[in-house]
Amino acid sequence: MEEGKARSGGSLLGALKRYSFVLVFLAIYIVYAAVSGGLTVGATMNIFRHSAVIGIIAVGMGLICLTGDIDLSVGSMLAFVAGFSVVVFNQTQGSIPLTLLFALCLGALCGLLNGVLVGVVEMPSFIVTLATMLIFRSLSQYECQHLPSELIGNGSSVYRMSSTLPSYQAIYQFGNGRLPGGMPIVGLILLLVIIAFVYLLTSTKFGKKVYAVGSNARAARLAGISVPLMRTLVFVIAGALIGLAAFLWIAMNASSDPATTGKSYEMYAIAAVVLGGISMSGGRGKLLGVLFGAMSYTVIDKVIIALKMDSLINDTIKGVILILVILIQIMGPRLKDRFGKSKAGASE
């Protein structure tokens, strides 16, 4: 009887630990509800809308972190892909399918560049993506200044979709539209991406290989897994996801500013991954947590706005939260081992 209670108590604590990202989100959400004086369904659904782009980027970042690498170029890549996707939209007389296909392919190609340098050449991912972060942002800004004005929507230093094209309203309504019940279309796309990649990581050989590479690359090699290929693939997939996020960005905003689009998104994506419980050392964590991590950061923004705090303090608060979460990740296992040894010694 006592053993059954111990097991049930242990399983409950284990479940709480595995899904702690849900508790973190609920705690932040309750604070938001309290400071805003109650929430409507529409306000809740807006969380999905505002989390869509960073959430999709964070899914790719989560894959990369699970292999033990990191990508600092995601924000600049978003600006790069979004800007040139606007050019394609304007050049193809507003072809939405071609614009989406181009965004996915260009994102995957940028990811391939990172992946080959990290996975095949075996350069440190931090250095590689720091360099490509500078390259993508610089190219995006340079081309915006030197392309013919009609290609960038006759804007000034900003890529703009031409509002005279027949499909302009269609893509803008897609980016800002809602389904019956109030769910934003872009929020639904985020949920579908999460579902697809949770399945990919939990129910396929690819997912097992990703965790194996992140847990122990040497053991993965001995097991016959091509570590360079896997490390390259996750960067390519992450790049394609950034392409999708870039398409959603221009659909929502009808423009892309090469100087500000995606600024600090690498930090927000890493924060969403860490808040979601994925270990930065690789091999541990659930991709489902990325959804709650991204939404947690969105709600933090809304709490700051509701409290009428200075927006300049926003990143300070997020930075402190990020440090605390990583500290918990590091100290948790150490404290567990220490107390575990103490209990073992006492029982003897």
List its traits.
globular; 1% strand; 348 residues; 14 helices; disordered N terminus; 75% helix; 2 strands; mainly alpha
Draw up the topology in text.
Blueprint: H1 2-18, H2 20-35, H3 41-66, H4 74-91, H5 96-120, H6 125-146, E1 159-160, H7 168-176, H8 185-203, H9 205-215, H10 217-222, H11 227-253, E2 255-256, H12 265-275, H13 288-306, H14 314-347
Antiparallel strand pairs: 1-2
Question: How many DSSP H or I helices?
Answer: 14
Low-confidence stretches: 1-9
Classify the helix fraction into a percent range.
over 70%
Query: Structural class per helix/strand content?
Result: mainly alpha
Strand content: under 5%
What's the Cα radius of gyration?
22 Å
Envelope shape: globular
Strand order of the largest sheet: 1-2
Largest sheet: 2 strands, antiparallel
Helix-strand sequence: HHHHHHEHHHHHEHHH
Task: Report the strand count.
Answer: 2
Compute the average pLDDT. Answer: 87
Pfam family, one: BPD_transp_2
GO molecular function, one term: transmembrane transporter activity
Transmembrane segments: 21-41, 47-65, 72-89, 95-113, 182-201, 222-252, 264-280, 317-335
Protein name: Autoinducer 2 import system permease protein LsrD
